[in-house]
Amino acid sequence: MSFAVAIDGPAAAGKGTISRAVAAHFGFAHLDTGLLYRAVGAKVLEGAEAVAAAEALGAEDLIVGYLRTAEVAQMASKVAVIPEVRAALVEFQRDFARRDGGAVLDGRDIGTVICPDAEVKIFVTASAEVRAKRRFLELQAAGSAMTPEEVMADVLARDARDRDRATAPMKPAQGALILDTSEMTIDEAVAAAIKAIEARC
Ligand code: CDP
User: CA spacing 20 to 30 A to 38: which of 45, 52, 63, 149?
Assistant: First the structure.
């Protein structure tokens, strides 16, 4: 039996952490759909054409070490505005959402476009300051030399591009639970997501 949980939200809102914890709690599979766009972005930085890269994407492209860098994130959000890039990635994500045993997908358009019939939809957000700080600490731990100001600019530029694009813009799906994690610990945010899912089980 399938059971889809759609978790959307802006950059560094905590989607990934919450999704992984929720998937582990319920024994569901987890797909970080941002990695698909990051992998296409990385290919473009290496000289590939975006649509061809999206069409040829394979599992091996998702394990490249530098996909989490800010440079790749920026390029990911640039290729993500191209409708043909998004179209090339739809089927894989929909199949994943409807696999047996339950699935959690996190991204920007999971509850609105990929899986509008998801059993549970959550939009995770937080203030830009909190998100930029979290991302700064993550990048710093990974060895990045970016300043807090650069990280903030990066997050805001990506948010604007994701929100304002014509195809599959980032926005809460109808009926989504809005989870503002600005003032929450990770445990509190995970507990709130688990409660929302249990209410639908
Ligand atoms: O981890 P973070 O929230 O910073 O970003 P991500 O989820 O890895 O996504 C990177 C970029 O991919 C986003 O800024 C979006 O432009 C794009 N993306 C998208 O358009 N649709 C998705 N479902 C997931 C990501």
Answer: 149
